[in-house]
Specification:
This protein has 7 helices and no strands.
Length: 187
C-alpha cells in the first residue's frame, strides 16, 4: 500500500508542479506532510540537501522520501511517479515533431532558418574574437597574445580536419584553448 501511496503522491507532484522545482516544493510539502511521511524540520533539511546535490530537486526529494519510507523499491516507485508525467509529455512532443519533420513546409522553414543560425553563431564568434584581440577599440590596441591563441586555434582546427578528414571534438578544442591560455597568459 505504501508503494501505491508514494507513486500516486509523486505522480501528482509531477503532473501539477509548474514553474520548475521551486514551484513544486509547496506541493511536495503538502503531500509529504499530509501523509505524515516526514516532519516539517526534516523536510526543510531535505530541501537544502536536494538543492546542493546534482540533479533535479523534485527527483532528489522523491528518491529520498521514497527510500526513507519504503527502502530502495520505495525510492524507485516515488522517482518513477515524479518523472513519469515529464517523460510522457516528451514522448508526445517527439511523436508530434516526428510528423512535423516529414512535412515539406516544416523542412522548408528549417532550411530557411539554417543560414540565420549560422550567421548568428558566426557573428557571435567574430564579436568574441574582435573584442578579445582588440580590447579597447578607441586606442586600436591589439592584444597580440589573444591574436596568437586565436590564430593557433584556427590552425589546429583546420589542420586536424585536413589531416584526419573529421571534425575535432569541441571538448578537445576547449582543452587545447585552455592549455594555450595557460601557456600564453600564465607565463
Amino acid at each position: 500500500m505504501i508503494y501505491l501511496s508514494l507513486f500516486l503522491a509523486f505522480l501528482k507532484v509531477g503532473c501539477f508542479s509548474f514553474g520548475g522545482a521551486y514551484g513544486a516544493i509547496p506541493l511536495i510539502r503538502d503531500m509529504v506532510l499530509s501523509h505524515g511521511w516526514i516532519d516539517e524540520e526534516r523536510l526543510t533539511y531535505m530541501i537544502a540537501v536536494s538543492e546542493s546535490t546534482p540533479g533535479p530537486i523534485m527527483v532528489n526529494m522523491a528518491t529520498y522520501i521514497g527510500s526513507t519510507k519504503a527502502g530502495i523499491l520505495g525510492a524507485l516507485v516515488a522517482t518513477l511517479g515524479v518523472v513519469l508525467p515529464s517523460f510522457c509529455i516528451i514522448l508526445l512532443i517527439m511523436v508530434l515533431l516526428k510528423k512535423a519533420l516529414n512535412s515539406v513546409y516544416f523542412q522548408g522553414a528549417l532550411k530557411g532558418l539554417k543560414p540565420c543560425v549560422i550567421g548568428l553563431i558566426l557573428s557571435t564568434g567574430l564579436h568574441m574574437v574582435i573584442t578579445n584581440c582588440i580590447p579597447d577599440m578607441s586606442k586600436v590596441y591589439i592584444d597580440m597574445k589573444a591574436l596568437i591563441i586565436t590564430a593557433f586555434l584556427v590552425l589546429v582546427l583546420f589542420g586536424y580536419k585536413r589531416k584526419t578528414s573529421r571534425k575535432m571534438s569541441p571538448i578537445m578544442l576547449i582543452m587545447i584553448s585552455a592549455l594555450s591560455g595557460i601557456i600564453v597568459y600564465g607565463v
